[in-house]
Amino acid sequence: AFHTGRFMKNPMMFEGKNLNCTHTIMTNTEGCKGVLLFDKQPGGKGRFIALMDYYYYAEKSGNPTAIQHKDYPDGFSDLNAMERELVYAGFQNDDPWGDTEIISILFDEEDGKYYIQNFTFSVEYWTGNVSVTPNFEEPFAGNPNITSKSVFALARKTPFIYFSGGANNNELYFCNLEKGTTLCEKATITYTSPIASIAVSTLGDRIGVALENGEFYLLETDALRTDQTLYHIPVSANIGKVKHCIFKIGAMTNFMWGDED
Question: Do residues 69 and 132 touch, judged by C-beta distance below 8 A?
């Protein structure tokens, strides 16, 4: 679910139809002034939709805008009619007033491979018009280790993406996107239960790994090649089955600059 700062009275619709949103993708708030939604359309195709939420554009807030772009490079999915399945999407940007890089993991049912997609999302300051710049879409280096149960987490301010994998989904992997998506490594620790969720701190220096059995590990990202942990919560009989974990952020300025988690 998504609410603008003005809280819509009715469910959001687009072109007179209900949306089937499977993902809500944050952007850097000051620069892009809203969020991206992924709408799964009848027939299997999906599309990215921009949703403005900013006081400069009060008349646009809560009004979905389709991503319209022409002249995609070869091999890049049409963002308004995607045939590859969107598995995960997140954003990277170190400047809260700049554009946003959207990084997605896609699955192609025809060849059975996972792909990494990168495009820049921007908003024209004086009109609120949205635009995208396709950067690349190519096979993801993590392919041998990803399963249908893998979970992903993208660092905002460092060039890393983290994901779970292995036959039991109890292994942690990290990939340096600055190396042309060609280098993925397995972290030293193998966990005793499937990984349910991964959270990355705003600065990207720590990650939280939550297991389905209720265990939680806090790790330094620089120490993933060791068995060191900053903090560990053992299994609790009362916690149930973990579904998700997040870092608590104190205020919007902390979210923008990453100076507190």
Answer: yes
